[in-house]
Amino acid sequence: MGIIMEERLVVSHSPHISGRDTIATIMRDVIIALIPALVAGCIVFGLRALIVTLTCVVSCTAAEYIWCRLMKKPNTTGDLSAVVTGMLLAFNVPASLPLWMAVVGSVFAIIIVKEFFGGLGHNFMNPALAGRAFLLASWALAMTTWYKPGTVLPLFGAPDAVSSATPLAAYAAGGNMPTYLQLFLGNHGGCIGETSALAILIGAAYLVIRRVIRIRVPLIFIATVAVGTWLFAGSGGIGTGDPLYQILSGGLMLGACFMATDYTTTPTTPRGQIIFALGCGIITVLIRVWGGYPEGVSYSILLMNIATPLIDRATAPKRYGYVKVGKEAAADEK
Amino acid sequence: MKTFHGGIHPGGHKDATAAKPVVDLAPPSELVFPLSQHIGAPAKPCAAVGDAVLVGQKIAAADGFVSANIHSSVSGTVTAVEKRLCPNGIPSECIVISNDGLNKTAPPIDGYTEDYMSLSAEEIIGLVREAGIVGMGGAAFPTHVKLSVPPEAKIDYVIINGAECEPYLTSDHRAMLETPTDIIEGLKILMHVFGLKDGYIGIENNKPDAIERMTAAAEREKGVNIHIVPLKTKYPQGAEKQLIYAVTGRRTPPGTLPWQSGCVVNNIDTCASVYRAVVMGRPLTHRIVTAGGSALKNPMNYRAAIGTSFEYIAEASGGYKSPPKKVLMGGPMMGAAVANTSVPVIKGTSGILFLDEAEAYVDREAPCIRCAKCVYVCPMNLQPNLLDMASRNHDIDMLKRLNVNDCIECGSCAFVCPSKRRQVQQIKVAKVKLREIAQRAKEK
């Protein structure tokens, strides 16, 4: 802060101008980018998807507000990061999830994962993904019961309808698989925000254009999964997998575009981000091909979140003008 | 288009003054000359209270090699040698001169000549030293020291810095448009010092008229090659290391000076001042100052006498549109906020910006969200996010490991930071801390 002198001039350190970005404008851009996926979720699963999303958003924001009040800290809900966490958590649960579970997951994400570690910028795991993992561990059935798109779910009460398999479960079990077009548009079972690759890509493109995220992390993550599943996920041996099916299904698009690009829990160095994305891709393939779950995106990101401080440390950018001793002469001659 | 890695686009804000010719500003009735207005030892006064002085008369002599002479910019009487508030915020010794308005000029510096090719490098450096010339881009490092490279040095490039990448400032731009031959002649003198036939002037491509004017002037030169190098408009294009890389492709290793990479860089106004000293025997008494900012009624470019107060310049520009809340010496990216407007123009004052309440607003800091924007833009490949944290945590080992002393304090990190953190301030504090620790270790 500046010091006020007798003539009441502000004296502060340079620079004296700053860019337009604030935390709130960045979070607002992420919210805008998530809206296509929300719309797709509502089309596929009905208005129940919207109700679940609103429940998560309101609970996350309320949890943060109450925490700030209890801890006598300034209210930080204005930075909109809790809204983003709420939306992402909702996108990672089925539309049929009982609403009280959504509330519990939200409170866990905000209080345990984010605020216990110091709040915005200090959490070491993605709050939405950790919330999802918590829900999955606590209420596995509710978190893995999927309904056929078009099933009319009651807006608030418990649904009672025919369940269906997710595309990845179908792939693993050799069941009735949706077409590529169905996968791309999102017309299949799954979590609220993950089914429509098209909607997610529209949002991701917006974030790239607005320079909120860099394209390298989603691109490398998705490419690694494509190569890995092509090599290993086929029933006919090496190189018989169906990479297109794999990258269009499950939470890969949502995870790669919106969760592996989270600022706080991913590396800050360009080389570190590449390693992070590769690691996410490899772990996803390991889980999908050899693991017990059909889906591995969220755990891959959580595991790489934990490795982030190490990656950051190992990939510090090369000092400007640094040349190894002995190579100096060679560099001069160039 | 030639440029460097990293950097930002803060917007030019140069329209208010770019088209305004430099106006000679009549000096005020009282002028103040800080004895320390350059890097190095403060000069020693050689005029006493009551002495009559002339324009260009030496009033303080360099104290040692890394120091600079100071000359009066008016004729009149020394009325005081006392502590006055300086632009750096510290009250320090100043010579105060009352202007008699007669503009009586002292004899030129001995040894000046139009035939500078007949002078040796030492003689030219001697003239530059006598004229009290320092880097006029803002850092104010004595130019004769910069030119006195060790005998083993092999200089391949003499580069004139016409990037003027700081927003608002247009003083170098105007100098290139109005006195291109002074700059070219100055460059030729510098080339002669190092025995070179090639010289380089780097100019950001947001000044096409300057590039055109300088190219035309360069093409008239016979026997030497003056290269006008258009540079991408990006901040900090005019930072020494970034300019050297853009012009020559050489990366100056950490902890070295440009001459160790075979380069010497000088500012536009400095270069023109070298010409005036060597060919006309004129010491450095005036400089071009851009007066601007949202609070000023008529932004202008002035040729101002060194020692003129900021206040006087504001009055000459028609006063204020709205009350100034922050006053800067230099540009908004690296300039310093001054405590009040009584402070004088010094040799390194490239601009004075009067900012209104909205522009002076200091944002509240939010927690770092690790967005990495600062890492992407840092032209020195540092990690400002971690430096900021290490400085606040007094983590000396971490600061060293992160190469805090590589930071050129350009402010790109703080500019892009969505959390509005003041990384440069923290880094500066850290540098002082490290210096104190090194000092204490030496004393033991």
Describe the protein's architecture and organization.
The complex is a heterodimer of chains A (334) and B (444). Chain A has 334 residues and is mainly alpha-helical. Chain A has 15 helices and 4 strands. Chain A has a single domain, classed as Ammonium transporter fold (Orthogonal Bundle), CATH 1.10.3430. The longest helix of chain A is centred in the first third of the chain and has 23 residues. Chain A is globular, with a radius of gyration of 22 Å. Chain B is α/β, with parallel strands linked by helices. Chain B has 2 domains: 283 residues, NADH-ubiquinone oxidoreductase 51kDa subunit (Rossmann fold), CATH 3.40.50; 71 residues, no CATH class. In chain B, the strands form 4 sheets. In chain B, strands 1-14-13-17-15-16 form a 6-stranded mixed beta sheet. Chain B has a 4-stranded antiparallel beta sheet with strand order 2-8-7-4, with no helix packed on it. Chain B is globular, with a radius of gyration of 21 Å. At the A-B interface, strand 2 and helix 1 of A face strand 15, strand 16, helix 11, helix 14 and helix 15 of B.
CATH fold name of chain A: Ammonium transporter fold
Biggest chain-to-chain interface with counts: A-B, 48 and 64 residues
Query: How can the largest sheet of chain A be summarized?
Result: 2 strands, antiparallel
CATH homolog superfamily of the largest domain in chain B: NADH-ubiquinone oxidoreductase 51kDa subunit
**Helix count, DSSP H or I runs of 4 or more residues of chain A:** 15
How many separate helices of chain B?
Answer: 15
pLDDT below 50 for ≥5 consecutive residues: which ranges of chain A?
A: 1-6
Question: CATH topology of the largest domain in chain B, which one?
Answer: Rossmann fold
**What is the CATH C-level name of the largest domain in chain B?**
Alpha Beta
Name the CATH architecture of the largest domain in chain B.
Answer: 3-Layer(aba) Sandwich
**CATH class category label of chain A:** Mainly Alpha
Strand order of the largest sheet of chain B: 1-14-13-17-15-16
β-strand amount of chain B: 15-25%
Query: How would you state the average pLDDT of chain A, rounded?
Result: 89
Termini Cα gap of chain B: 52 Å
Give the CATH architecture of chain A. Answer: Orthogonal Bundle
Helix content of chain B: 25-40%
Q: What would you call the shape of chain A?
A: globular
Give the averaged pLDDT of chain B, no decimals: 95
Q: Level of helix content of chain A? A: 55-70%
**Structural domains of chain B: how many:** 2
